[in-house]
Design a protein that fits this description.
It is built from 5 helices and 14 strands. The strands form 2 sheets. Strands 1-9-8-7-4-3-2-6-5 form a 9-stranded mixed sheet. Strands 10-11-12-13-14 form a 5-stranded mixed sheet, with no helix packed on it.
């Protein structure tokens, strides 16, 4: 996969607002994937996903955040449903709407030697609130985003299921508007963002080529429950349901062609079995 020409939207020349307390760990020899526990979504009624409770193994959804560490840099992919600041010191957990967290993203990053200031690139599968809660903490990173997503996020009337206060600092971040279906982040085919519209207009999935684990696709919200994939149910709240159907067919074909595993990011049971940081996949 060749790296496509990118357009620079804005160059942020202001000095960092905060300085890292220490240097980032040295780069690894091959790509690493860290998985963070960013809480859960407590769904009491799955009808908007077109399911009855008895059709699902669990109605709960996981919220995962990911750090990809490449020999040439770092990428944060999705940053949670509840801002770290909502979890007060000494509190075991905090719930906002459907979402609950028990530990902060930043504290989990610190355990592996990283701080938000160390992150080179920031990207989201899409703009919904449960994927961008800690976006402001990464405003020093270069934001990789589809134009249609950024335009929606900063529109006079933002779309449903977003919280503009949680990503307002990105308006002044250095930003690369992704012009093509595929965007090869580091130019070597190991970390590629693939356009997967339907859930939102600029929704995307992330393809990773790991040396030992093999190829993986992080799903974003291509699916929420694994039963969606089996029974071919499409949630009621897609931006374009027919586009979601077409996108799923396209990504399923890519999975077969590439031999990649699909990690459904909201799959509560599968996510619980994944190694969490400080462990990693490589």
């Amino acid at each position: 996969m060749l790296k496509k020409t990118a357009f620079i939207l804005a160059t942020w020349i202001a000095p960092f607002a905060a300085h890292a307390h220490h240097k980032a760990p040295p780069p690894p020899k091959s790509v690493r994937l860290y998985v963070f526990d960013c809480g859960s979504l407590n769904i009491s009624d799955p009808e908007r996903f077109r399911f009855k409770k008895e059709e699902l193994a669990t109605t709960n959804l996981s919220v995962a955040c990911f750090l990809i560490v490449h020999p040439k840099g770092t990428l944060m992919w999705d940053v949670g449903a509840v801002p770290d600041a909502a979890l007060k010191p000494g509190a075991p957990s905090v719930m906002e709407g459907y979402a609950t967290i028990t530990q902060t993203l930043e504290s989990q990053m610190e355990k592996i030697g990283y701080e938000p200031e160390h992150i080179q690139y920031l990207a989201f599968s899409h703009y919904h609130y449960d994927h961008i809660a800690n976006a402001n903490e990464f405003a020093n990173a270069t934001w990789l985003v589809r134009k249609v997503e950024r335009d929606a996020m900063f529109a006079a009337k933002p779309p449903d299921k977003v919280n503009p206060a949680n990503y307002s600092a990105l308006k002044n971040s250095k930003t690369i508007l992704i012009p093509a279906d595929d965007y090869d982040v580091f130019g070597d085919g190991t970390v590629v963002m693939k356009l997967a519209p339907g859930h939102t207009p600029g929704h995307q999935v992330l393809f990773l080529k790991l040396k030992k684990t093999g190829p993986i696709v992080l799903s974003g919200d291509l699916y929420h429950y694994p039963e969606e994939r089996i029974l071919k149910r499409v949630p009621t709240f897609e931006t374009d349901q027919q586009q979601t159907v077409a996108t799923r067919e396209k990504i399923e074909a890519f999975l077969k062609e590439s031999g990649a595993q699909l990690w459904i990011q909201h799959d509560f049971i599968a996510n619980a079995k994944l190694k969490k940081a400080p462990q990693f996949y490589e």
